[in-house]
Amino acid sequence: TELQSFLKGKGVSTALIQTDDTFPTGTVNVRLEKGGSPSYEIVSPVAWDYIRPDDRVKEMVKSADALVFGSLACRTERNKRTLFEYLEVAPIRVLDVNLRAPFYAQPLIEALLAKADLVKMNDEELALIASWQGIGGDERHQLDYIKNKFGIDLLILTKGKDGAACLDESGYQEHPGFPVKVQDTIGSGDSFLAAFLSKYLKGENTLECLAFAGAVGALVATKAGGTPEVTAQEIQALMGTKA
Questions:
Q1: Could you tell me if 19 and 38 are in contact, meaning their C-beta atoms sit under 8 angstroms apart?
Q2: Which of 14, 61, 119, 122 is the most buried (most CB within 10 A)?
C-alpha cells in the first residue's frame, strides 16, 4: 500500500496493479561501490515473480504506445509465459536488458531480443551478448550484428560517463553525455529509457532523444535513490551546457 500511495501521489493509476497474498513485495539490497556504482542483491521469490495473465492488462497493452519489459522480470516461467502473451499484442515492444546474476541465461536473453522492436543495453551487457555471438570489433560493429540477427528496429547503448549511442535504419548516432558529480547511479538507466521514449514516441529524431535522455539520466545520478525528483528547469540548464 505504501508504493501504491506513492504512485497515486504522482498521478499514476494503480488500477491494474496485482496483489499477492503469498509472496512479499519485491525488495533489492543495494551496495554502492567506489564512484557510486551499485551492486544488487535481488531478493526472491517475491510477488512480482508471479504476474498472472489479465485480460484487462492485455487490452491496455493493445491500446498503449509501447510495452516496456525487462529481462529480469522473466526469471520465472510464469512471468515469461505472461509476458510473451502480452508481447503478441503490443504495438511497440521495448526491451530493457537487465543482466543481474544469477537471473539470466543466453537462451532467454536471445528469445527476448528476437521479440523486441527497440532494445536498450549498457556497454557491459553489449560485450557479453557480443561474446555469445562470437563477435569482436568495436561497439558499432557489435550493435549492427545484433540488430540484424534479431531483427531489432532500434538499439540504444548507454556508456555511463561516456554518453550513449543508438543504431537504427537511418544510421548510427552518438551523444557524449553530460559531466556531473555522481552521487549514485541507481535508477539512471531506467530514467534514461523513460526520457528517451517520451521523445521518441512523439517522433523526435534519435540524436535529440539521446541528448534529452542523457541529461535526465545524468541528473538522476547526482541525487540519492532510484526515483529522485528531476525538474524541467534542471534538465534545460544541464542541456544548455552542451551546444
A1: no
A2: 119
